[in-house]
Request: fold
Amino acid sequence: MSNTIREITDDAEWDALVDRAELGTVYHRSGWLGVLNECTEARIHRIALEGPTGLLAIWPIGLLRKGPLRIGGSPLPGWNTAYLGPLFANACEDKADAVRRMYAAPPIRKPAFLATRVMDTTADFGPLGFRRIKDFETYEIDLTESTETLWGNLKGTCRTRIRKGEKNGLEIREEHDDSYLDEFMTMASDVFAKTNKKPPFSKYFLKQVDSRLRARGELLVTSAFHGSDRIATLIVPHDRRTAMYFAGVSLASRLDLAPNNLLHWQTISRTKVLGISSYDFISSKGSPGRFKATFGPNARSTSIHWEHTSNIVVEKLKSWYETRMKSKQKTAHTK
Reply:
């Protein structure tokens, strides 16, 4: 029996395959892929490679056209998706060959340009003509440790800020619907305006995230309130294993109340209560930040960004696309 490739159309079947993969994330699951299908130009395909003994690999890939060119992404820039790419079963002995087979077969069929993150940092796709663009690492907290240990792991400055937030009367509440989104976008606009950018996500995108993931029990949204005023909010997608810090915003005018450390700490505590085993702070720029380090996390490599380009013309178009995406983030009042 030879290897076969098929497209998975059933959400339950796909999510079961993701759950079988040790490195699968909430971003690989059908809820998040549905957001991308709705909010990007791409059509998301869910591909499975099976061998004589069973599943070898799965790969969610978005395909779109730019003029005559077919572009593939898992993910592409602007998708607000930290992790994606192929996932490999234990039975897969040759990961490069698995990628080669999926890359060449329908519906992928060797697009002119393909970008993908790969969670397995030991896999080498250089022999397939892929270029290793960037390595990503993150800060992660082991939630299987006791609350006392997690508290003890915090830096002194972090504990001080948490206590200050409590002393200032802040209350952390879980959001049970999407009524927070208007204020979230207002706060996000203020945060990104400091660097002359617009938020990388639209309200419609966040509404899709809230609707699709909340229905699947894959979303935790928490806010810090001072009285009746919402002054900071966190959006945290999660599966049964890992909570993923997606976005957090706060009112600049209320930072003196110290909402951010308290909000993160209580959100981390809530994910632990949910039975989730790790909290991933996620980095979109390759390396974690100093604020996240104050929570006493462990640093680890998470993924590698690989790209395949068919020729130099496509490479130039890719550079143009990246420049265009960056310019879209500039605010209208940027000088």
